[in-house]
Amino acid sequence: MSSTPPEPAIEWPVIDLPLPPPGTMGPPEQYGWLRRQCPLAQVRLPAGATAWYATRYEDVRDLIADPRLIRPTINDWPPRHDRAADDEPGLITMMELDGPRHAALRRALAEPFSVRSIRRRLPRLRRSADRLLDEFVAGGQPGDLVGGFLEPFPLLAMCELVGIPYEDREYFLPRADAALGAILTLDEGRQVTAQLRDYIASLLDRKRRERADDILTELVHACGRGSLDGESVVNFGLSMLVAGYRTSTMFLGDAVVALLTVPGQYARLRDDRGVMPGAVEELLRFIPVMNGVVVLQAVEDIELHGRRIRAGDAVLPVLASANRDERVFADADRLDLCRADNPHLTFGRGAHNCIGAHLARAQLTVGLQALLDRFPDLRVPDGHHPTWDDESPSKSPLTLPVSWCATDAA
Ligand code: HEM
To answer: Where are the beta strands (DSSP E) in 103-174?
Structure first.
């Protein structure tokens, strides 16, 4: 470990939000110098607002669990000139809840999201993966693995566990993506938020009448017993639509790209499955999806690295940069499937840390195992490439053309 360099003597200008180089998953090239020279930078976001961008491991670890930073609703941040004082609160998910209601929800969810409970579901997860791969293979090769498997598998896994009908995806997916998108006008935002709330509320009505083995059914019955309030269950349902699958989909997509493009890594995992648990942790560290995805807002002034974060300012603790911090991870930019010491921050820390971490790990493990078993020779065929959305700060392939037989003919 090297000693901490002196604080920057100059006042750094506001920089544009660092983006991954075009045609790659990233990370942005600026991480290294920001960590060394300007660990708390001011960035301008695509929508125009500015935010603090914290890149060092120890800062990110502390900020994400700091009670002086809250999770704002999409109505509270970024600031909008067309916002009226009496606006309805935006989409309220579990992330924006705090205090006793948040604690009660976390208690109710601890068992269904526990390692033990997720482990029980592994055979079912594997059957879902195999079924999707049967359909994918039937389409012939080369095929697009993103549309055929990498997107639907984590979504199906979340839907089955939580009790959201997978068949409804064409209704809720575009609305959930729109609710998350920064380009929404306030009116559009209100509209999709209201539609998603109505969707979850009517689903909960059905769960009250029909018993099923899923988390939403358990939660509506916990409400009946008085241990939880109904609004919190709606907030949880909304969290699943916006946080319960997109990150997993992106991580699984990037994991397959990393394994196929870093020489020897796919074969390494195929030939030694004992490496899998550590390899999954290393992929979670290495994949830079969490590039300013978590947005916090200061409720009081905070001093850091000689700069003052003022109450109301937004702070982005950049988990993906912390995971590449050379002070903590030896040879941090290398994918090392056998890395021994790996305290990555991908699932956050503190009161709002990821409740779905064990499910996400299971999705990565089962998804990769199903691919390695079915396609020992998986590859991106010559002349084909993954495609990416180069405008986005957190990237995963939009399409990934793959072949799986010794010859590329179906
Ligand atoms: C690789 C996949 C995933 C990653 C990297 C990830 C990452 C994170 C992070 C960093 C947080 C903390 C955000 C904050 O501090 O404000 C979080 C919160 C959360 N995640 Fe995940 N997540 C993943 C998958 C999932 C899945 C599969 C689910 C559920 C099906 C899920 C549900 C949640 C929920 C409900 C919260 C909010 C918890 C709270 O506010 O108490 N996540 N996630």
So the answer is: 143-144
